[in-house]
Here is the input.
Amino acid sequence: MADPQLNFSAGFPMPTYDEWVAEVEKALKGAPFDRKMLTKTYEGITLRPIYTRNDWPPTGDPSGFPGASPYTRGGRAAGNRVDNWDVRQAYADPDPAAANEIILQELERGVTSLSLLFDKAARAGQDGDGAMNIAGDGGMMLYSVDDLDLALTGVYLDLVTVALKAGAQFLPAAALLCALWQRRGVSPAAARGAFNADPLGALAETGALPVAPEKAMAQLADLAGYTASTYPHSTAVAVDTSPYHSAGATETQDLAASMATAVAYLKAMTGAGLGVDAACRQIQFIYPVSCDQFLSLAKLRAARKMWARIAEACGASEPARAMRIHAVTAERMLSQRDPWVNTLRTTVACFAAATGGADAVTILPYNATLGHPTELARRVARNTHVILAEESNIAKVVDPGGGSWYVESLTDAMAEAAWSDFQAIEAAGGMLAVLKDGSFAAKIADGYKKREANLAKRRDAITGVSEFPNVQEPGAEVAEPDVAAAFSAATERLHAARARGASVEALAGADGGAISEAAVSAAAAGATIGAMAKALGGGETAVTPLPRHRYAESFERLRDAADAWMKETGSRPSIFLANLGPLAKHTARATFARNFFGVAGIDCIGTEGYADAEACAAAFRKSGAKIACLCSADPIYEEKVATVAPALKQAGCQYLFLAGNPGDKKADYQAAGVDDFIALGGNVLEQTRTTLALLGVIDR
Here is the structure.
């Protein structure tokens, strides 16, 4: 029987931190400790290889308890133990009827709430038949209560939370959902929704609002007041940082933007007469989370801590300071090439969101950036939730990072850095001001340049794209909705809705406090999004929209160009591998070269090793290639480059690479005919772009 008192560490002295550092420095053999062992994040936070009790107060508990101020450890005492986190998947099929089939299937298989994306026409305040070019683009054709009713047929609206994503048209969209609740006989006390009014987020994303900012804020405040007094289990306001995150913001800039936006909304709501506690409870925060597990976990913990401090300063009671968080797996980390790797990325992100205490989580399907997800992609995303919650029991531990010296230190560092950025935004006049003058966009762009440089050099590797690319990979399948049929059906429903003769006059003349009620009445009578938006509009606002980035985008543009070349010419752009010497000598660098050029869709031809210049040149000439890359070990380079390089040039090689760092032999190799060198730390993006240009695939 095992001895429960057995202690394997007994008898061994406990080393001090300084002693540990001394041993590490010995292992580094003179290399600087700070350079090798410390990592600086894009947020400016320095990560150390080891953390001790000195990094977190040994007495007391500054993070408090779960469900208690400062809410670092979660907004609820039980966390997600009782019913796991809310599995909130997103739906954007253009046809509400087709979307309904998907929704019902998903609700039967683990999804617990719905996020409905309105198409670009609706988000622009137009009905589909008046904006044919954007109808069905990016979301569902939801223009009237009939459309929404069709999309949610068979859904128990007193049990399932419905979240809306309608951009600047949050008020007409909310009116449609409220009208549907009335049509279905769902009592206000039972209705569950998230209207997600976020005008500043819409302005940042699209660069436009259909009204002046002051009017948009007044509409937000009116909707919040109406929701607070009518629908106790719904929220009106969202602070969605996806536009900033997709533009390249660091995680602390993302947090700062969320706090500045929330403060602006809080001022608007309280200024319209809503109590501070009620106003706080109307806000839901939507954060993208990446596959950097600990950074994402700490981000959500820091967000709760920061918001609790702001809400306290605004006079909110302790219960009202608890933040509601909806986490979404970040779009910018997803790749279009080898998209199956996205499943791994989203799994880690969901894990981070769950352990970070998110109340609701959305996992983007692995082919989300390619088009409409297939049933398999939706199933994988849905089952990721189920496996993490039900099989891995992630939700059974409340704040698993709590008490960890590393996690607690990282949480504090994130909060401090984000607080500084938040103060800078407020000092500049607030979130609207920094969107108008472009200063926040400039800060995001400056920070993203550093990440772009590291991506280009593969210091930040993207599996399946910049590392281990499969040039011959088949493309992932995507669903192909029948947009034409959906548009035809939507047009018929629009005609039927308009035939009911709903008036929007009351909506156009409604004063503060009555706008939302008038909108709901109009929607219930058949008013469309286009009609309501026109009545509510006036005084447009325009700024420069934030860009949208994905880490893989630059490499994937090269792959797209290579694929287009192959489609046009019938052959893939290629480079000849001039492998020198026996297999054992050239395999490592030939593999490196194949991986290096493969990131741009360039096929590497030639697998043999050549003993002399004549054989290598003959093989090159036979291959029909224009460019070659020498691959071998350094001693063989020193012996053969002087003869092989000239022979390849004479055989028609227009540009010659050498795989490896040439060191002090660089000048000699260049004199022999080598044009460039590929090695670890090189700018892969630039060198492969140059290669495609030399092959005539792209223009320089």
Q: What stands out?
A: The chain has a mean pLDDT of 95. Residues 441 and 546 are 7 Å apart (CA to CA). Residues 405-427 form the longest helix (23 residues). The chain has 27 helices and 18 strands.
